Each structure stands twice: as C-alpha cells, then as structure tokens.
Amino acid sequence: MNLNHRHQIRRAIVAAFSFASLLGISQASQAYGPPAQAMNDAKRVDDSTLPSRALAGTGIAGSFNANAMSAPQLTFTLPDGRTITAKRQRTAEDTTKGRKSWVGTFTEQPGSIAVITTFKGATTGFVSYGPETWELMPGKAGGHVLYRVDDKKIPAAEPVLMGPKSENDVISGTSSSTSLTTDATTGGYVHDLLVVYTPAAKATYGQATLESMIQNAVAAANQAYQNSNIGITLNLVGLQEIPYTETGAIQTSLYDLQGTADGKMDAVHQLRDTVGADVVSLVSQDGDACGIAWSMRSISTSFASSAFNVVNSGCLSNHSLAHEIGHNQGNMHDRASTTNTGAFPYSYGFRRCMSDGTGFRTVMSYSCTGASRVAWFSSPNAYYNGYATGIAYESDPTNSADNARSMNNTASTVAAFRTSGTSTTTPVAPSPTAPTAPSGATATATAYNSVNAKWTDNSGDEIGFKLERSGNGVDYTEIATLGAGTTSYVDNGVIASSNFYYRVRAYNSVGNSTYSNVASVTTPAVPPSPPAAPSSIAALNDANGSATVMWGDASTNESGFEVRREKWDTRKLAWTGLTTVGTVPANATSMIDLSGSGTYRYSVRATNAGGVSGLVGPAAVTVTGGTSKGKSGK
Ligand SMILES: [Zn+2]
Fold first, then answer.
1. Residue 543 above 90 pLDDT?
2. What is the per-residue pLDDT across 10-60, written as a single tens digit (0 to 9) for each?
3. Could you give the angle at the alpha carbon of 446 between the alpha carbons of 441 and 448, nearest 5°?
4. By C-alpha distance, which of 426, 329, 427 is closest to 378?
5. Which of 107, 195, 262, 454 is least enclosed, having the fewest CB within 10 Å?
6. CB atoms < 10 A from the CB of 152, how many?
7. How far apart are CA 510 and CA 460, in angstroms?
8. How far is the CA of 365 from the centre of ligand 1 (A)?
9. How far is ligand 1, taken at its centre, from the CA of residue 212, in Å?
10. C-alpha distances in Å from residue 423, one per residue of 153, 234, 237, 277, 475
C-alpha cells in the first residue's frame, strides 16, 4: 500500500528532468565566445545590383554588423541556406590610420580564409572557402552585398617576366642595416610595400572601397605567410592613386610602372624611396590577366629595380597580390605550369589535381581541376587534409616544391631592397610558435560506455587538438585529432566500471603545446536489461474515493513498478491527464490510488536502471465515494 502520492509524483518529475539533462543538447564552444552574424537583415538581391564578376543568383544584401569586427567568430549565411562560421585568427589594427582587419579561418575547410577590413569608413572583405570565393562589398544602394565570384569571369592566364640571371650577381652587400628590416618581435623580416592604383580602378569601386580591398589582400598575404611558417610581414607603407591610363595590356602597365624615365608613373620611384618600400604593386583595370610580375632568380639586392608587379583589381580576393609579390620574392609556379626557375631549385608552387575532395593548390600554383587555391605557400612541412603541401628538396630534388623555404631564404635580401622609410604603419607580426596549452580539462561519464571530455581552448593559432586517454594514468594513447576551436569530445571507446584519464594538447605547424591537466572519471556499471512487462492488471473501486490497482509481477530484475492513470473527461469524451500516480518497490503487486470519484483507467510497467518494460493495461474503473479530485483543484 502506498499513499504518499505527492512524494511519488515529485520523484517522477525529478527523474524526468534528470533524463532531459542526459539528452541535453551539446553546447557550442564558448571558449571564443558566440559567433556574430556578418550581415544583418540579409535578403536575396537581383544580379543587376551586383558587380559583373558575381556568379548569377548568388547575391544577398543586408547591413554589415557593426560588432562583427570585434567578434571572436563570424557567421556568413549564404543564399543557398548554408551558414559557415569563421574563427578569428587575428585582427590587425592601426588606429592612427583608421584601419582594422579581421582575419579568420573555417575549421572544417583547411586553408580557408575570411578577411574583412574597415578603412576610411569603407568595409570590404572576402571569403575563400574550398572552391568558392565570396566577396563582401558596399552595395550600390547602401548597406553591403555578399556574392560568390564567378571563376569564369576572372582572368586565367598570367604572364611572368624573368629577372636577369647573372653569374656575377652579388649576394646582399648593401649598406642597409638589418635592424631596420627585421621584425624584432619574431625575428622575421618586414617587406615594406607600396601600392599605387590607377584612376580607372578608383572609379570602378570608389577610393575608400578600393583601398579597403587592397588592405584585405595585404592581410590575406600575411595570413598565408603565417600559415606556412614564413618569417615575413608584409607592411603596407604607402597606398595612393597614381596618374596613369592603362592600355588593357597588363604587361605594358608593368613596364610603365618599372620604367624610370619613360614619362609614365615615373613619380613612383621617388615615392618608393620616401616611404622606403621594398616592393611596389600597381592595382589596375587591365583585364587580360590577374597579375604580372618580375620573378627574382638571382638573390641580390640588385633585383630591387625589378621588384614591381601589377594586380588586376578584380583578383585581389584571389590571393593574386600575394602571388605577384611572391614572384618578386623569388617564387615560381608549380612545375607542371612553367619551364622557368625561381630563386632556388625548389622555388615552385605545389598542387594536387584531384576531384575527390582532396585537391588543392598553393598560392603560387596555377589552377587545375579539383584544386582550389588555399592560403598557403608550398611547404613539405604544412599539411592539407593530411597531404603535404610541398616536397622537400632533400627527398626529391627534381620534384621539390618549397616556396616557404625559398621565401625564408630570400626574405633578408628583399627586406634590404630599400631602407625603411617614414611610415608608422604597425606591422602584423607572424607568430610561428606552438600554441598555448588548453586547460580546465574535465571528464564526465554520460553512460557506462561513454565519456564526455571537455577543456578550455586558450590558443588562437592552433590547427587543432590531440586528445589522449589512459587506463592507468601512466600510459596514454591518442584517441582523437580535432579541429581548431574544439572544446569537447564524446569518447565512446570506454568500458563499464573502469577508471579513465584524459589529457589534451593543442598543435599547429610548429608543434604541440604542453598538455592540459589530467581529468579522471570512473564509468558506471553496465545497466541491467529492462524488466519484463507485468502479466496482467485489474482496477477495483474501493467505494471510498480510491481505487486498488493490482497486477501480475512477471519480471525478476525490476527495481519497482510505475502506476499511470488517465481520467475520463465527460465533456471531451476522451481519456485525459495521463500521469504517473505512484511508483512502488520491486515485487509489489498492488497500489491504492486516492483518485477521488470518477472514471479512470490504469496502466502499469516495471522499471529498473536499464529502462522500462512495456505497459500492461489499461484497466478501467469507476470510483465512487469521497470527492472528485479533478474538480476540487480548480
Ligand atoms: Zn604567377
């Protein structure tokens, strides 16, 4: 006999809440704070409002989120319904110039990059995501537009001019002090860059927008250097318009830019000396190529007079600025796309032409089927989806591809093309160090065979995390490699009634962090199988406002029985108000329910830690005597 109904009901409610928390939706990583939407109030827009290089039907318009530039994660909602979220890798800010750049990557898409810059009040950006390039630009009717770039509308071919290859080139040997060209914070080199642009380019976008796009391209180049462990910081020391009318032939623009006394852009040389620019880029509207550059083959400061390149404005979101400057730094394309050589026998780009999803190409490589451009220079020491992004000269000289090594080797020479000028632009320093270790590791058994491990992500430059498990706290095995920003993992490889120990470390291309603290957990015993359902049920009217419910106990492993009741609603003509009115211990076969008068039906099931049995019943009964509980409550 069990009369303590309220207690039983409360227990049932508590049990229900516990169950809900077990099923609880796993929370997104909070270590980097919640993501912000890049655009608010986004809606589809007509192609006519988009730049001509937009892919048809991919445009959305909205207002750029004012808080986005300080958000730790940025979500882009694409017109096909996908939402992709970039995790911030760094911001670069120069308050004296009113510039701020936000650089991030999408964890699920290696080599991807999102770059957004606000400069002189104009915000532009681009997203390079697998085969897709998306551009964020001010809209013609205010606000911003986001659209995918149509690759077919981007110039493909790109001529390269070869620098002189003289046997007598002298290595270095200038008077410039390395203290002026070395980034003291990292030991890397600063390559000071002057970018000039044509009136036609300015007219196409508006000055502030074009300058913001150029700042983006510089930020993207710096991220690619960092991704590939290249000790170079590209430092934009000059950015301005230069009087010049391009002919449409990009090679002509390069000659006119480089020429010192041809009456075309000759002022650029004085400007270069004033700001101390090692390299000079022209952004033009020449539509026959994405860019053109002289490629340094003899490593010498005498190449300074050839350290010029031209980039089509429409290719700034395609890593073309980093590519063309890369030629000035001594890089050549992938071997299959050139017969030329770069500064070193291994100064080639790398590409993997595979359409199975594993294809990619580095910044210096030409396109091929299946190979999207990633924000990396070739290097045998950096990996894309498990594939090395280059080939070491020592292991395979005739196929070697190691732009990163080449750039590190030419970096001091390029930095010495000009002594530093008067610019106060703050360089964006690369930080080629192993990431900071995660902390706060915890391990919680969510079932006899499942442990939820969590930790705090303390690094902003990790490629991912390596999670290790031990059965004795001494010998650890790595059980999972997880992407950047991950802060939890469900381990379904554990067994019941055992102790387990977890530790985690972050890693990047430099190496592993130290380990987090060790989190230990004891898994619970294997739960019993659910009990068998009761064999029979009957409900009797006690004629005093209660019913006696009886059932046949057919199970041997129950921890108790659950008695459930519904009431017949005479207005709705339906059974309503299903509720568990009591839970009684194992081997009980009856319970008195103080139901009050009315017509009820009961069902019963057996329970244990492994679950519940099927129901027996329902058994209906009309109870007389006492008062009706259903009415007295109202
Ligand atoms: Zn090229």
1. yes
2. 333 333 333 333 333 333 333 556 788 998 888 898 888 888 889 999 999
3. 115
4. 329
5. 262
6. 8
7. 14
8. 8
9. 23
10. 36, 13, 5, 10, 55
Distances (CA, A) of 373 to 68, 85, 248, 383, 399: 26, 19, 26, 14, 20
Chain Cα centroid distance, residue 227: 14
For residue 157, the model assigns a pLDDT of 60
Distance between Cα 350 and ligand 1 center (Å):
13
Residue given tokens 């898409």 in the structure block: 109
Neighbours of 254 (CB within 10 A): 24
**What is the CA(79)–ligand 1 centre distance, in A?**
33
348 CA from centroid of ligand 1 (Å): 11
Give residue 244 CA to ligand 1 midpoint distance, Å.
23
CA distance 17 to 341: 69
Ordered alpha helix ranges (H), 434-557: none
* Each residue's pLDDT tens digit, 122-158: 899 999 998 888 999 988 878 899 999 988 887 766 6
Residues in Cβ contact with 398 at an 8 Å cutoff, skipping those fewer than 6 apart = none
- Gap between the Cα atoms of 279 and 291, Å rounded: 15
Its pTM stands at 0.61
Q: In this structure, what token pair is assigned to residue 216?
A: 């983006």
> How far is 582 from 564, CA to CA, in rounded Å?
7
**Location of structure tokens 């969590």:** 454
Cα(159) to centroid of ligand 1, in Å?
A: 7
* Tokens coding 226: 């960092």
Average pLDDT, rounded, for the chain: 85
| Contact by Cβ (8 Å): 438, 459 | yes
Tell me how far the alpha carbon of residue 352 is from its chain's centroid: 22
Decide: 131 and 220 in contact? Cβ < 8 Å: no
- DSSP-assigned letter for residue 229: T
